[in-house]
Design brief:
51% of the residues lie in helices and 0% in strands. The chain is an all-alpha fold. The protein has two domains: 72 residues, no CATH class; 64 residues, no CATH class.
Length: 138
């Protein structure tokens, strides 16, 4: 940690990596993984430390990780088909300005859920997703 590609990471980035189930690896761990990779003969390997317990506990698993760990079933999935219609129905009943506010609230709540926040109030709508903590694995 704190060397090479991770040299520019701050504490928030390091914590987010650990909370995502992929804690950073040390230089020594990285070199050991490289040595192992060079002896396997495989063309494509991903040297990474996975904390499977953290991945399972998150409740949602990034598409990249779905083949490695099963997340608990979500109740929302059972109502997804009706949820889409309900949202459309709700939005059509609202005035234009109310629609924008309703959608903003929905996006903030979903972003908070993905990032592990307790509610959408902490999501600043003027910030870019990347600045909020989203990355390619989120």
């Amino acid at each position: 940690q704190g060397a090479g590609m991770t040299a520019g990471l701050d504490e928030r980035d390091i914590r987010r990596a650990a909370e995502s189930g992929m804690p950073l690896i040390t230089v020594e761990q990285g070199l050991a993984l490289l040595d192992t990779a060079l002896t396997t003969g495989s063309a494509a390997l991903v040297p990474v430390r996975l904390d499977l317990a953290v991945l399972r506990a998150r409740g949602t698993v990034a598409p990249l990780m779905r083949g490695l760990v099963r997340a608990p079933a979500r109740r929302a999935a059972a109502t997804a088909a009706t949820g889409d219609t309900a949202l459309v129905d709700r939005l059509t009943r609202l005035q234009r300005t109310e629609r924008r506010d309703a959608l903003l609230t929905l996006v903030r709540e979903q972003a908070a859920l993905v990032l592990g926040h307790s509610g959408g109030g902490g999501i600043d709508p003027s910030r870019a997703f990347r600045d909020l903590g989203f990355d390619s694995l989120t």
